[in-house]
Specification:
The complex is a heterodimer of chains A (about 625) and B (about 450). With about 625 residues, chain A is α+β, with helices and mostly antiparallel strands. Chain A folds into four domains: about 25-215, no CATH class; about 255-385, Gyrase A, domain 2 (2-Layer Sandwich); about 440-550, no CATH class; about 560-615. The longest helix of chain A is centred in the middle third of the chain and has 24 residues, at about 230-255. In chain B, about 25% of the residues lie in helices and about 25% in strands. Chain B has eleven helices and 23 strands. In chain B, helix 10 crosses helix 11. The radius of gyration of chain B is 26 Å and the shape is globular. The chains are: A alpha+beta (about 625), B alpha/beta (about 450). Chains A and B meet through strand 1, helix 1, strand 4, strand 5 and strand 6 of A and strand 3 and strand 4 of B. Strand 4 of chain A pairs antiparallel with strand 4 of chain B.
């Protein structure tokens, strides 16, 4: 995501807002019947959902262009030059005339129904740890709107328009990446190159990775929304494992002698079994006039319970499909029952009604009849796909590194020219000028920073491997905080916090600037940084100032202070016994180191004096 | 097909034995190989760059000097014809006649070549806008295919005659006229004056966002127009377009009260000095009247299709040279509508010229560039002098409507007194004595 002054096709500032939107409006998108045909499952999928879209806008950073109420303006020059620069950095071949294209996207994330995109260059390369990684294409495109809400019952999706139109550089690498760790390294290095140009937005979601993963015998699975680098290896590993397990399931089905034709779609209404059920899900659905529908899966016993990814069984894949196609809450399957309030007797009764045999499995769903039926249809078709191994699909990354079904894979790119924007000629003199303006390579930056700020080899290398190499220098020069401190917070502290489960994605650069300024000006002790960052991650909407004052007010009461002081005095018993009242000064120093910025010094002095006297007199 | 390429490129293509829409392999001097389809050039841009549609769907331009060699892989990939579909009509007895005048009310994209094809046959309309099947049996005809800014009073006559013919011979429930939006309100006014009695409405509609995009307003506008044509109780010339930036409610404006007030928004049309005539919900299919007075459907068809081409619409501006008005006399104009300022004023230096034009038998009408509100020539001296000079105040008629009306009046009669009388008569609700608070957008409380 580029940090240009203006958006790609209008003059709105490239600012993301968090406050309430100023206005909203409603749209629908349509594809003509003949265009959907059998050609494009993703398009058909979105079309069938018959959604309408609510768009929210701000007066200051959304104009008629994002609303699709005005033709696009000429593409932003600054963005084009940045994309061209990146092409030059990776030695790609720049086209002579850039044509803006419309890429059909009908999930509503673009008010127009398409994303504007242009191919800038082809055929570059980067060198990552001695291996040449080909860059297939470099495109410049507009970012989509942000989804902020979804209401399945009203069939509406709400998008915020501030992000729509912010320029993005899309870099596609060739299919040569062979390991999870390599995927992370390549993504990291490309991110560094992009950031080396400056004018690239930083922070969560500003560099996103879409991963195409396939193992031998598997299928191309696209994973969207991997928001931070350290997650990449895990996502890749989990997905490879999922595909491996799906292949094993395929082979197991063959070994069991099962065929697609054996899996009949004949749902049975088993509502009667659950008349007096203890299952809350079942009871509430049936009370609302819903039904219990069950589908027998011949020979599938044990398969639904196979774990594909940590904590996600094959049954979860069925549930994903049922949720997406039929908008049901979920499904139950025989490999996990009895459980969730469904008793052994009920399970046996369902089996009896379905006529299952020893090796059969079943799936059970509670909902309105029509939805329940649609859900089982979705389950059935996923079961059929299991005979072929891995289905092609687009999946979304979960924060824990597992993935879930998002939508079927889109058909061949539906692209046609953006007739409202003229092609842009790229001439040699422009490229020559940009060539002279290229930034120093990240390796050089690292060397320079290491020498200038006296960083150890180890810390410097860690900084290079983090996403914050360029932020580091800005933080140091703008806040006056110690370089080593900044470097170690950006690397170790943040990583440790993430490991502790702190949602560090909420911490933004402005927060970091605020924290380091507070440290540099002595407002808080550097030891307090992890706690402050933690508090920020929990209350990202607050300013650093209010977090600091909140921390000092809430986290240190007089009694807590007294306890702390008593503890320090007892730890330094010998000192107190030797020096008597003269121990005040060293004890005060020790206490202040722990509480600086959290309670005022006068109070501390009073408490220390009081406690010291108590200690001496006792 | 015209390729749009420079001589050099055309030679290169010819010598390589390849042409437009061929799939080729292009080898560049820097060693790069590109596989793609050769496209014709857009009308603008660098004629010396070859436009290729690559396998990934992107178009790129490659300079002729950079090309080493072009190899033919496959001859001409062409657009697939629209798949024919037998539609099942569920509408009972209602029929709508579509008249195309230009612009593309509907078009589709060929994803192989990227080209956009307009369509207008009934089959194609059904195929692209399936809702029509539930609304009416559709018949369509392309009358002409011009930009709306190329319309002339002659075209209005042709449309009016066609409407008469269609209502007499085909007896549809209503007529929909697909029209470019820029001058739609002129044409809709013209038809309002020309068609005095008809069995149904004449509903103009169009698109502010081209129909080759999934977000186009055209399909919803067509559905709303068809619903109006079938269901509305009135038989007037109206415009049915989006009522807001939302894809929900359409507003039906009287042609004689409508004006395009925005260059690009889908709710560009507004009724001025009047409420819209009706609102249409394309989803519930409800047509709700917003006014109680209207011309009802009639058994007879009464059309007066002639317009005079010798009427002009002139905007007054500070510093306007009086001799500009003389020009119209020299060119044989018989009617002049002046867009004055405020209540209907012009520089007092122009008043003697106007007096002499009137004496020479030219009808001069004064309207206001304020658009909202009525002309009143009795309040200030210039107004009084204009009245004395023989100018006719347009009341709260829009300047464009006054222009169309005068063109129509002078197409009916050359008798000046009769023409003046006809002009002052309220013919199609284009004129009213009352202006209400809610007729002006300032009453909406935007601030």
């Amino acid at each position: 995501m580029l940090d240009t002054k203006e958006k790609l096709f209008c003059s709105c500032p490239t600012v993301i807002r968090k406050d309430q939107a100023d206005y909203s409006f409603m749209r629908r998108l349509r594809l003509a019947r003949s265009e959907i045909g059998e050609l494009d499952p993703a398009a058909l999928f979105e079309f069938e959902k018959g959604l309408h879209f609510i768009y929210e806008g701000y007066n200051e950073n959304v104009c008629l262009v994002e609303m699709d109420e005005e033709p696009p303006h000429q593409p932003n020059r600054e963005a084009i030059e940045l994309a061209l620069k990146f092409a030059l950095i990776v030695k790609a071949h720049v086209v002579d005339e850039i044509h803006v294209m419309r890429k059909i996207v009908i999930d509503g994330s673009n008010t127009t129904g398409f994303q504007r995109t242009m191919l800038i260059a082809i055929g570059g390369r980067v060198n990552v740890r001695g291996k040449e990684i080909p860059i297939e294409t470099i495109c410049l495109e507009e970012d989509a709107a942000r989804k902020v809400d979804e209401d399945p019952t009203r069939r509406s999706v709400t998008y915020r328009l501030d992000r729509l139109g912010i320029p993005l550089i899309e870099v596609a690498t060739g299919p040569v990446i062979e390991s999870p760790e390599e995927a992370r390294e390549v993504a990291h290095y490309i991110g560094l190159l992009l950031r080396s140009m400056g004018r690239v937005k930083r922070g969560l979601g500003t560099i996103r990775q879409d991963l195409n993963i396939s193992i031998e015998g598997g299928a191309k699975v696209e994973i969207k929304g991997v928001q931070y680098l350290d997650l990449i290896p895990l996502v890749v590993k989990n997905e490879a494992r999922r595909q491996q397990r799906l292949l094993e399931i395929r082979d197991e089905l063959k070994r069991r002698g099962l065929k697609e034709e054996d899996i009949l779609f004949s749902p049975v209404d088993v509502t009667v079994v659950f008349r007096n059920t203890k299952s809350r899900v079942a009871r509430s659905a049936i009370e609302k006039g819903g039904v219990a529908l069950a589908l027998k899966l011949k020979g599938f016993k044990g398969i639904l319970g196979v774990e594909l990814q940590p904590g996600r069984r094959f049954g979860a894949e069925l549930a994903d499909r049922a949720r997406y196609w039929a908008r049901v809450g979920g499904i139950f399957h025989s490999d996990e029952l009895p459980a969730y309030g469904i008793s052994m007797e009920e399970v046996e009764e369902v089996k009896r009604l379905l006529g299952t045999e020893e090796n059969d499995a079943f799936v059970l769903v509670f909902d309105e009849k029509e939805k329940a039926l649609k859900a089982l249809e979705a389950v059935h078709s996923r079961i059929i796909e299991a005979f072929h191994g891995v289905p092609e699909e687009t999946r979304a990354a979960n924060p824990d590194g597992t993935t879930r079904f998002m939508r079927p894979r889109p058909g061949k790119a539906r692209m046609y020219p953006e007739t409202d924007v003229r092609p842009i000629k790229v001439d040699g003199s422009l490229l020559a000028r940009l060539e002279r303006e290229l930034p120093e390579p990240p390796e050089k930056t690292l060397e320079r920073l290491k020498n200038k700020y006296k960083l150890s080899e180890d810390l410097a290398q860690q900084l290079f491997n983090s996403e914050h190499l360029f932020l580091f220098e800005e933080l140091v020069t703008k806040t006056g905080a110690s370089p080593v401190l900044v470097a170690s917070v950006l690397t170790n502290t943040l990583r440790n916090l993430r490991r502790e489960g702190v949602n560090i994605e909420n911490i933004e650069e402005d927060h970091l600037f605020g924290v380091f300024k507070a440290v540099a000006s002595g407002k808080i002790a550097k030891e307090a940084i992890p706690d402050v960052l933690k508090a920020i991650a929990e209350n990202p909407e607050l300013s650093v100032e209010s977090i600091l004052s909140k921390l000092s007010l809430q986290s240190l009461t007089i009694s807590e202070l007294e306890e702390l002081v008593s503890q320090i005095i007892s730890e330094r018993k010998q000192l107190v016994e030797e020096k008597g009242e003269k121990a005040f000064s060293p004890i005060m120093g020790l206490v202040m180191e722990r509480v600086r910025g959290r309670i005022d010094g006068k109070t501390v002095a009073e408490v220390v004096r009081k406690k010291l006297l108590e200690a001496i007199s006792s | 097909m015209e390729s749009g390429y420079s001589q050099k490129l055309r030679d290169l293509l010819a010598s390589s034995g390849v042409g437009i829409f061929d799939m080729v392999l292009v080898r560049l001097r820097d060693g790069v190989m590109l596989r793609g389809i050769i496209l014709p050039r857009p009308q603008v841009g660098d004629q010396g760059s070859l436009v290729l549609k690559l396998d990934n769907g992107y178009n790129v331009g490659i300079a002729a000097e950079r090309i080493l060699e072009i190899k033919l892989l496959e001859k001409g990939a062409r657009a697939q014809p629209l798949t024919e579909k037998t539609h099942s009509l569920r509408a009972s007895g209602e029929s709508v006649y579509f008249i195309g005048t230009g612009g593309t009310i509907a078009s589709r994209v060929d994803y192989v070549t990227g080209a956009v094809y307009p369509y207008f046959s009934a089959e194609e309309l059904y195929s692209m806008i399936p809702e029509l099947e539930d609304i009416a049996v559709v018949t369509s005809e392309t009358l002409f295919n011009i930009f709306s800014e190329d319309m002339t009073p002659q075209h209005w006559s042709t449309i009016a005659r066609k409407i008469g013919e269609v209502y007499k011979l085909k007896a549809p429930s209503g007529i929909v006229v697909a029209h470019g939006t820029d001058t739609m309100h002129y044409s809709a006014s013209a038809i309002a004056f020309a068609v005095h009695q008809a069995p149904g409405s004449i509903v103009f509609t169009g698109a502010q966002r081209s129909s080759d995009r999934p977000s186009s307003d055209s399909a919803l506008n067509v559905v709303g127009a068809a619903l109006t044509a079938v269901k509305a109780p009135f038989a007037e010339s109206v415009i049915a377009m989006h009522g807001s930036v939302n894809d929900d409610i359409l507003l039906v404006h009287r042609g004689v009260r409508a004006r395009k007030m925005h260059t690009s928004r889908r709710d560009a049309f507004m009724s001025i000095n009047s409420l819209p005539l009706a609102r249409v919900d394309p989803f519930t299919r409800e047509v709700k009247m917003l006014q109680s007075e209207y011309k009802t459907r009639s058994d007879s068809v009464e059309i007066y299709p002639d317009f005079s081409p010798k009427v002009a619409l002139v905007k007054f501006y500070p510093g306007m040279d009086p001799s500009l008005l003389e020009f119209y006399r020299e060119k044989g104009y018989t009617g002049l509508v002046i867009e004055g300022t405020g209540l209907g004023h012009i520089n007092s230096n122009l008043v003697p010229t106007i007096g002499s034009l009137v004496r020479d038998g030219i009808i001069v009408v004064i309207s206001s560039q304020c658009l909202w509100g009525s002309v009143n020539l009795n309040v200030y001296r210039t107004g009084v002098e204009l009245l004395k000079a023989g100018a006719i105040p347009a009341g709260n008629m829009l300047p464009e409507v006054a222009y169309v009306k005068l063109s129509w009046v002078l197409g009916q009669t050359s008798d000046i007194e009769e023409a003046q009388k006809l002009f002052k008569t309220n013919i199609a609700y284009e004129l009213s004595e009352r202006d209400e608070y809610r007729h002006y957008p300032g009453a909406m409380g935007w601030w």
